[in-house]
Amino acid sequence: MKIKKGDKVQVITGAYKGTVAEVTKVFPKENKVIVEGVNVVKKHLKPSQANPDGGIIEKEMPIHVSNVMAYDSKAKKASRVGFEIKEDKKGNQTKVRVYKKTGAEIK
User: Fold this and answer.
1) CATH number of the CATH domain containing 68
2) Residues 47, 50, 56: CA angle, nearest 5 degrees
3) Fewest CB atoms within 10 Å of the CB: 25, 40, 48, 90?
């Protein structure tokens, strides 16, 4: 999966289309991500020992990774993600993620 925890992403489809936020959790086996403030639902909690009153909480639910794109803050655009092999002065090679639109490295 090309999107990782901590990446800034833009939602490209659905009710939250256009929202730019950070990825808080990634589920690679299910190809889903949780994005901060996106796909918020109300969940009813039954009273328990830990939460004696029960109540209603707002919770962020996962969305499919195909519904988000990596967001380049400098270019202010969403972009696909690619990989490049970088070589340092010692000759060691590392694989880095880059934005396809600008070619800039993803930090």
Assistant:
1) 2.30.30.30
2) 45
3) 90
